[in-house]
PEP-CTERM system associated protein (Granulicella mallensis), 423 residues
Amino acid sequence: MNNQQHRRHSWRSLGGLSISLLALSSVAISAAQLPVIADTHSMPRVAEGSYYTMQWLEPSLSVSSGYDTAADDIPDASGGLVTVEGKLGVNFRHERSNLMLQHDGQVVDSIDTGIGVQQYQRTSLVFADRASRSTSWSFLAENGYGSDAARDVGNLNTATLNTVKVPDTNTVAFGNVTGNTLTDRALLAVDHQLTAVRTLSLGGDATFHHYFDQGVSDQRYSVNLGLRTDLRNDITVGVRAEGVRESYNHLNCTTASITAFADLSFNRDTLLQGGIGPILGSAECSGNYQYNVTLSKSTMRGTTVYLGSTRQVSDGFVNQSTWETANFGGVSLGQTRTALVNLDAGYAHYEIGNPTPANPNLHGYFVSGELRHRLSNDSELSLTARYFSRGPSPVELSRGVFLLTYRWAREQRPTRTFDSGGR
């Protein structure tokens, strides 16, 4: 893929399949590691009106054993733990359309703590279609249900900021919501290529959270319109307008923003991306401005380094916050085919519209280290150490998690082709 193609799509790895978000590159997809929109432009050609293809998305199963210093985010509730995680998905392609279904689940048993078994389940559907040579559209729907705190001991959740895959900053505050949570999300995105170098984008999404123990909910709705232009193979600029309506229990927020952004590529291995702009809204929610910036660099030996910072309207998942500011960085060292080292760290600050002593502004950080060793084409062992800290009181907590994990992931199966009988 050349630099121009790289900037037009936000990439994210999911089960070995490269998929893209048909929205502006300045958008950060956060919270629950959502799958993003399939790239229909890169699909293999299929005989028109005669066939469709099916492909399994790299099924996987992980079994972990370890130690937790604060199980279920309860101070001093330390003890051993066992986790099981699995993922299964399937992808259907027909002419210019693409349909992807995926489910992943996690079960955690905390030993000697009396907490019992916890679980978190997530199911997603993505449909993408090329209406014409110049217009494509995509739809995403996702449902998640289970214990928020259980995710601390799972795979490190990630988000896509610009085109860089980074740890989800909400990780620093996981478990702030006790008990089970329900998350539903729907997203629609449309891209229309005006010229060879200019693209118009239109999108909207709706997100719903419910917290069962507290008996409260929050909703978020947004629409956006943007224009981006490729000035050269290594420079893209654009502007994006967005309107957001959010409801946090008894607090309602309406905001409007305009963001100017740019993507700069240096020597094919270094990418600088960012955006900044004003944001206006009701007094409890307006933060005057928002920004995001990421710097990433890859080497021929497989090493990747990234740094980033962002300030944006929150989705309300953490403590029903209205604003979040985050800084993060990390490195992935892949010097050999059999070993990989990942180091990640992040800090986040969450602002509440009307903070109180019982519901204050929240801040926290985490550090995570992972050593992975490949045993075969289908299996690997990993050793993970992770530390979280958040505050202030009454939600102050420090938590350490240590895991030894065996993971099996079947290589992506060959594509199967079926006769659909024509139109």
